[in-house]
Amino acid sequence: MSAQVVAVNVQIPASTTAPIVADFIAHALRVGYFHRRDVRNLPKDEWNQPGVYVLMTTDGSGVV
Questions:
Q1: C-alpha angle 41/43/46, rounded to 5°?
Q2: Which residues contact 26 (CB under 8 A, 6 or more apart)?
Q3: Cα–Cα 20 to 30 A to 58, which of 1, 20, 33, 49?
Q4: Which of 10, 34, 6, 33 is nearest to 23 (CA)?
Q5: Alpha-carbon dihedral of residues 6, 10, 17, 29, nearest 10 degrees?
Q6: What residues have CB less than 8 Å from 42, skipping those under 6 apart?
Q7: What is the reported pLDDT for 63?
Q8: What pTM did the predictor assign?
């Protein structure tokens, strides 16, 4: 059985407060990983858009 490979472009910024961005081009999906305290640092023109936003905890509970 072979696994399907999905190409992902991952951008890791030099700043620790900027999001790590993963672009799943084939699926027209962009994912930003960032700490809750840094939400104010997101570029408004890029992330103030309609979409699905999933907020996760860091306490290991798995609660979304």
A1: 145
A2: 6, 7
A3: 49
A4: 10
A5: -40
A6: 19, 32, 34, 48
A7: 67
A8: 0.66
How many other CB atoms are found less than 10 A from the CB of residue 29? Answer: 13
**Measuring CA to CA, which residue among 55, 13, 42, 64 is closest to residue 22?**
13
What is the Cα 6 distance to its own chain's centre? 16
User: Averaged over 30-59, what is the pLDDT?
Assistant: 79
DSSP 8-state secondary structure symbol assigned to residue 9: E
Give the 3-state secondary structure of 10-38.
EECCCCCCCCEEEEEHHHCEEEEECCHHH
Sign of CA dihedral 33, 36, 38, 39: positive
pLDDT at 1 over 70: no
Number of residues that make up the chain = 64
